[in-house]
Each structure stands twice: as structure tokens, then as C-alpha cells.
């Protein structure tokens, strides 16, 4: 029965306590109550769940809610039970239930006490459930996270493809499909697969005006994250990482730096995972560090920041995850740290998958790269991806590119050259090949078309490949060219592009960011030069003086990168000295005090303001293997056994050991030395190290032939020398 407007509003107030509907919620609910199919695309925080929860509670029968995540189902069921005296009002039916619990759910459904049944798509494939659900009066079906249906979406689930067949098997009723992230192609796929081409489309704007989009180069990322969080003064936030290991590392690093953070990932024991989630919801914890498993269905409106330690694998994923910030309309800062090396990791995940899945995955990753590297308005680019036009003047400096714009220049001729090249290539290439043609590079695909493209080949070689990718991105967003999704990104000139070619007009361009170039410059600066060259020289002279008095090579006292870091960071306490690159607690205690005294006096004499954010405390055991390595070397185990037990190579083990020794901790490798070397060889090697300038492996390697000593033997000998003499 269709309720009057007053009754619907009364129900909203009576059940949920809201005075009015949000956006198009009322229109969507009425469409559903009239027995019509609906496709609802609404941003995170827009109130999608209300669109099926309220009609399910007030209409006759039970609504079947299909959801991909057990955690999401549980959250929604718990929330609904909070609005009702009847705990049977909502149930889940999934693999988390035992036989007795399944029977209890069936009994409540049969009695009519249950109004919403949350199910995983896998559960609906079970014949016993299908037969049982046929006996019930179904009010409608809601397919939540409907983008999972599409292979072009960011979270494709093959079992979602079978939903329409299952619905027909149980008994056809109205369908409402809902998602926060769907490109036009994904929208089409949802409707086609659910056979609801005539569904009413409710498409909200994807624009979240209160979110600030910020992409930063991945330089000193832990330090940057800690600095950012400390400036937020205890506000709630989420940090997303690609791997469980990184989640644990970042959470621990935040904790030792005084930030109330907890990890969350699928590898945690279930009770602990729930406890961490609840601590975040109850504000007993400020920051959750998580894999993307965290956040779906989490009803916490005051998340003030979302940080991506690693770039997401798709723009849909990015949009959904950043969308968890500022759901109450308040501040929401979205920071993503970007490096092309992260892209390589994402591409590695595609290895071994079916060809079509690899092509789709690569296309999604390329869109993410384009978003990260573009210097145009982030909001405009993101909304264009979802099929929405946006005037970047309305961004109001709510993205890093609009807040700090790069200079623009007239790009009309470059855009014309691009489109002429595309047409010369018979519009048969993706962006990568098109750019290769422009700059005069080749591959097997280009060679096949060589006769067609001779005029265009090399026509843009005065500019870099990165420049031409920027032209493609900006022409794409302006609608002059398009990418064919079905052919995994083949470039085509649009009708608007053809008009532009006939009557060219002004076209402003900006060059893209090159974050890896920024990173490499920063790393080079860190490696090569100190910020304070005068202090660096003073420290270097002091090191030489101590080394001479001790009859040791200067690098045994401190390596040069350590002096560089001291001249950048100005450590004036023993704790701060222990945080300097390559120093460690042991070496700080042995040699650090005189350096601290020099730096402290230098800072006072020159009235130097030290970096306020200098001190990022590292974990007591930054290497998870450190204690294990030391203990097993004390037990005199072979290196191959130690490496094998930790599932690392001997080379990786040696690198871990070198890090331990260079930071000032002793390793007693005499058992390996005695097994490997004759006494005269030990004496000769020690003599070379004592007389060397850097006490480095490279100096040893240059001194001896490979048939005399292996790399492994020389590395072990060097570590023993430093442990005995320097540490």
C-alpha cells in the first residue's frame, strides 16, 4: 500500500527520529513502494541505506538485502535493532552462523517478525535457502554495493552476476540496486545484469564539497603522516595501506609517537578486529590504520581525514574510501601519498589472472595514475570520471591543484597535433602507443601500422612523453577525445574534437606533476648534501679527530650519511641522536655525546630554530627480524638456516645484519669467521679495513679477487670488524 506523504514522514520521525528526508530519499522510497525497479547512485554519506530500510520496515513482507561484507551486514543489523524493541526485526544469513542460529533466523522469518534479511550472494545460491525463501512474502530485493556486479567496477564479485537468476528462482519482486561509485559504463552493466534496463535512475551529484583532495609525493611518508595527524589535535581519521604488514608497521610507529592508533585487517583475530573497530566508533581510539577491508558500512560521520599510505588500485576505490571523511558535512581532508613504485606493485597483483581481468585492471590503474599526476582541478577530473561535468571555478581551492595552481599556457597547437596523430593512426591506439608515435618510439603494434603513421611519427618529439600524456588527459576531460572502455582505453576523437579541428579556439594547458622526480631530487639531497654545510664540516673534522685518536677509519665512528642527517636535524639529546640515520642506541651511547655537545653549542651560538617536527620515534625494533637474528647468531646457527626460518634470502639476511651492525649493535660472528677463514686471511682483511677510508664492502671487493673471497664472506668479515672495533 502506498503511504501518504504525512504518514511516510511520520514513520521516518517515529522509527529513526529524523524530521525530514535527505536529498531524493523520499522519491526513491515512493518509487519502490509503487513496485518499480530503482538504480540509486548516491555518494558515501548520502543516506542510501534509508532508501531500503524505511520501506522494508513499513511495508508487508520481508526485504532481502544482498550485501558483500559480513561486517557491513552486522553493523546495519545492530543499528536497526537499536531502533526497535524487537531484536528479530533484522537478521543476517551467511557463513558466520551455525546450524542452530540458522534455524532461529528461519523461525523468525516464518513468524513474520523479521522485516529485513541481510544475505551474502553466496548464501543465496544454496538450494535449501532458495526453497525456504519461496515460502515467504518478499516485499522487494535490495542489492547493496551494486558495482560488484560489473567487471568494470573496482570490486567485481562473480557471484553478483548470478543475482537476477536467483531472484527469478525465488520469486520476482521490485529490485533496488544501490552504490556510491559507478561510472556510466558500470551503471549500464548493473542494469543489464539485473535485467532492469527500465529502472528509474536516481543519480546524485558525486561532488563532496567539504572534502579537500591532496596528492603528495611519497617522501618521508611516516614523518609526514605523524606531522599531519599531530596537527589535527586528536580528530578521527583512517589510514589505508596496501598490505597487512604495512598496516601493523604504521600503527606501531604512530603508537610510539604518542598517537592513539590501532590496526585493522583481515589477518587479525576476529574478536580483536571487532574490538578495534568498536574502539574507533566509541572514540577510544583516534586513528585506524587499515587495509581497504575497513570502512564499508561504518557509520561514523565525524571522520576528519583519510590518508592513503599507498595509492588505491582504482578511482572508484579512492572515491569510496575518501568518501568516509566528513560525512556530517564538516571538514574532511583526503591525503594520498603517490609514487610510481606503488603502481608497479598494483600491476604485479594482476600477474597470473585471466587476460580480460588484467586488461580491465590495467585500465583502472591508468585512470588512477592520471588522477594522481594531473595538475588540473582534482574535483573536475574525479567528477568527469563518473560522468559528471563540473566547473572548476566552483572547487573554491578545495584541492591541492586549485590551491597551488601550476602556470597555464596556450596549448591549442598541441591538442590539434594530438588529434591529427590519433586520426593518422586510424584511432586504433591507446594513450601509451599514441604518445610513442608522437615522440618517435616504436613497438610491435606500432610497426604493424607504420605505413599509415609515417606523417605523424615523431611529430611531437620536441616534447616529452609525460607532456603528451598531460595533453591527452586534459583533452579527454574537455570532451575533445574519449577512451573506449570496451576496448580497454582505445582513444577516439569525439564530435566536439572534430569541430575543434575545423575551428580551433584557445585551449589552456598545464604540465603534469612528476612526483617521482621530486622524490629523487629529495633523496639525492639527503644523500649528497647537508642543509647546514658549516655544521657538517665541523662534525666531519670532529669525527676525523676521534678516529685518529682511536686508530680507526672515520666511518667506523659514524657513516657520512649520519653526519649529513645530524646537520639537517640538529639532535641535542641522546634520544634524538639515537634516531639519526645509521646511528642507533648503541652507537649513540658510545660516540654520540661529544657530537651532541658540539651541535648544542652550535645551535645556541647561531640562534638556530630546529625543525619542530624533527623527532619521529622509530620502533624499538624497526626490523621485525632483529631480535630473532641476534638470538640465533648467539646460538651459532648457519646463516642459511636463519634466513630459511624467516623466509628470506641469505642476501636479505646479510642486509638486515649490516643494518644492525651499522647502527651500533654488536654481532658475534666469530663462529662464522673461524669456519671460513684462515688466521692469516683474517689478519689481512682486518689490515685492509683498518687502513681503508670508508671501511666499506666496496673497498674490500676492489682489494680482493672474486675467486679469493665471495661477497658473502667479505660482508661477514666487515661486520665482524665493525662489531669488534667500532661497536
Describe what is shown at a glance.
This protein has 727 residues and is an alpha/beta fold. It has 34 helices and 17 strands.
Textual characterization of the structure:
The structure is a single chain. By secondary structure, this protein is an alpha/beta fold. It has 34 helices and 17 strands. The protein folds into 5 domains: 199 residues, Rossmann fold (3-Layer(aba) Sandwich), CATH 3.40.50; 193 residues, Rossmann fold; 104 residues, Orthogonal Bundle (Arc Repressor Mutant, subunit A); 76 residues, Orthogonal Bundle (DNA polymerase, domain 1), CATH 1.10.150; 101 residues, Arc Repressor Mutant, subunit A (Orthogonal Bundle). The longest helix has 22 residues. The radius of gyration is 31 Å and the shape is globular.
Side by side, the strands of the main sheet go 3-4-2-5-6-1-7
Number of helices: 34
Helix residue percentage:
40-55%
Structural class: alpha/beta
Taken from the alpha-carbon principal axes, the silhouette is globular
Q: Which regions have little confidence, pLDDT < 50, spanning 5+ residues?
A: 1-5, 521-528, 620-624
Query: How many strand segments?
Result: 17
What features would you highlight for this structure?
727 residues; alpha/beta; Rossmann fold; Arc Repressor Mutant, subunit A; seven-stranded parallel β-sheet; six-stranded parallel β-sheet; 49% helix; 11% strand; globular; disordered N terminus
Amino acid at each position: 500500500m502506498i503511504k501518504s506523504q504525512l504518514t511516510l514522514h511520520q514513520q521516518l520521525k517515529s522509527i529513526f527520529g529524523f524530521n525530514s528526508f535527505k536529498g531524493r530519499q523520499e522519491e526513491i522510497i515512493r518509487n519502490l513502494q509503487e513496485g518499480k525497479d530503482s538504480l540509486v547512485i548516491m555518494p558515501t554519506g548520502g543516506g542510501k541505506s534509508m532508501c531500503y530500510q524505511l520501506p522494508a520496515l513499513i511495508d508487508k513482507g520481508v526485504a532481502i538485502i544482498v550485501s558483500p561484507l559480513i561486517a557491513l551486514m552486522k553493523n546495519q543489523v545492530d543499528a536497526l535493532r537499536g531502533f526497535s524493541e524487537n531484536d528479530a526485526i533484522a537478521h543476517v544469513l551467511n557463513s558466520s552462523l551455525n546450524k542452530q542460529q540458522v534455524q532461529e533466523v528461519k523461525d523468525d522469518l516464518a513468524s513474520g517478525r523479521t522485516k529485513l534479511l541481510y544475505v551474502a550472494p553466496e548464501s543465496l545460491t544454496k538450494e535449501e535457502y532458495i526453497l525456504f525463501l519461496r515460502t515467504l512474502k518478499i516485499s522487494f530485493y535490495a542489492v547493496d554495493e551494486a558495482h560488484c556486479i560489473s567487471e568494470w567496477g573496482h570490486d567485481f564479485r562473480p557471484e553478483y552476476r548470478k543475482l537476477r537468476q536467483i531472484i527469478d528462482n525465488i520469486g520476482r519482486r521490485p529490485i533496488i540496486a544501490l552504490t556510491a561509485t559507478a561510472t556510466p559504463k558500470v551503471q549500464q552493466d548493473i542494469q543489464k545484469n539485473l535485467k532492469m534496463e527500465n529502472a528509474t535512475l536516481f543519480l546524485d551529484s558525486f561532488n563532496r564539497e567539504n572534502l579537500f583532495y591532496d596528492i603528495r609525493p611519497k617522501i618521508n611518508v611516516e614523518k609526514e603522516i605523524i606531522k599531519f595527524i599531530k596537527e589535527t589535535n586528536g580528530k578521527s581519521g583512517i589510514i589505508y595501506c596496501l598490505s597487512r604488514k604495512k598496516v601493523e608497521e604504521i600503527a606501531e610507529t604512530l603508537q610510539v609517537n604518542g598517537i592513539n592508533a590501532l590496526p585493522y585487517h583481515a589477518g587479525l583475530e576476529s574478536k580483536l578486529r571487532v574490538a578495534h573497530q568498536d574502539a574507533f566508533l566509541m572514540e577510544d581510539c583516534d586513528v585506524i590504520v587499515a587495509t581497504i577491508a575497513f570502512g564499508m558500512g561504518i557509520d561514523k560521520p565525524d571522520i576528519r581525514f583519510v590518508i592513503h599510505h599507498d595509492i588505491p588500485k582504482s578511482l572508484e576505490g579512492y572515491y569510496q574510501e575518501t568518501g568516509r571523511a566528513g560525512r556530517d558535512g564538516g571538514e574532511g581532508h583526503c591525503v594520498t601519498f603517490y609514487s610510481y613504485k606503488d603502481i608497479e606493485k598494483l600491476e604485479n597483483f594482476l600477474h597470473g589472472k585471466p587476460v580480460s581481468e588484467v586488461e580491465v585492471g590495467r585500465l583502472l590503474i591508468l585512470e588512477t595514475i592520471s588522477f594522481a599526476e594531473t595538475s588540473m582541478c582534482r574535483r573536475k577530473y574525479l567528477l568527469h570520471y563518473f560522468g559528471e561535468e563540473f566547473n572548476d571555478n566552483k572547487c573554491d581551492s578545495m584541492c591541492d591543484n586549485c590551491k597551488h595552481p601550476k602556470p597555464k599556457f596556450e596549448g591549442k597547437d598541441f591538442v590539434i597535433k594530438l588529434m591529427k596523430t590519433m586520426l593518422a593512426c586510424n584511432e586504433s591506439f591507446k594513450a601509451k602507443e599514441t604518445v610513442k608515435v608522437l615522440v618517435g618510439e616504436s613497438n610491435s603494434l606500432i610497426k604493424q601500422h607504420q605505413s599509415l603513421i609515417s606523417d605523424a611519427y615523431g611529430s611531437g618529439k620536441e616534447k616529452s612523453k609525460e607532456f603528451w600524456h598531460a595533453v591527452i588527459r586534459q583533452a579527454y576531460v574537455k570532451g575533445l577525445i574519449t577512451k573506449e572502455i570496451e576496448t580497454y582505453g582505445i582513444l577516439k576523437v569525439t564530435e566536439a574534437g572534430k569541430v575543434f579541428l575545423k575551428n580551433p579556439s584557445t585551449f589552456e594547458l598545464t604540465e603534469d606533476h612528476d612526483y617521482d622526480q621530486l622524490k629523487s631530487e629529495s633523496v639525492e639531497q639527503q644523500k649528497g648534501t647537508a642543509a647546514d654545510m658549516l655544521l657538517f664540516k665541523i662534525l666531519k673534522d670532529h669525527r676525523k679527530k676521534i678516529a685518529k685518536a682511536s686508530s680507526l677509519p672515520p666511518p667506523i665512528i659514524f657513516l657520512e650519511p649520519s653526519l649529513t642527517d645530524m646537520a639537517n636535524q640538529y639532535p641535542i639529546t641522546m634520544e634524538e641522536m639515537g634516531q639519526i640515520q645509521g646511528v642507533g642506541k648503541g652507537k649513540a651511547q658510545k660516540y654520540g655525546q661529544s657530537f651532541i655537545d658540539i651541535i648544542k653549542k652550535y645551535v645556541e651560538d647561531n640562534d638556530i630554530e630546529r625543525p619542530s617536527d624533527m623527532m619521529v620515534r622509530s620502533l624499538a625494533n624497526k626490523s621485525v627480524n632483529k631480535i630473532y637474528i641476534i638470538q640465533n647468531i648467539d646460538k651459532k646457527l648457519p646463516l642459511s638456516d636463519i634466513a630459511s626460518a624467516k623466509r628470506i634470502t641469505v642476501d636479505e639476511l646479510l642486509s638486515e645484519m649490516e643494518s644492525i651492525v651499522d647502527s651500533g649493535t654488536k654481532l658475534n660472528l666469530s663462529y662464522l669467521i673461524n669456519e671460513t677463514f684462515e688466521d692469516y686471511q683474517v689478519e689481512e682483511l682486518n689490515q685492509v679495513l683498518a687502513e681503508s677510508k670508508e671501511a666499506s664492502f666496496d673497498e674490500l671487493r676492489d682489494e680482493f679477487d672474486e675467486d679469493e673471497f665471495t661477497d658473502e664472506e667479505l660482508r661477514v668479515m666487515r661486520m665482524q670488524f665493525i662489531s669488534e672495533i667500532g661497536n
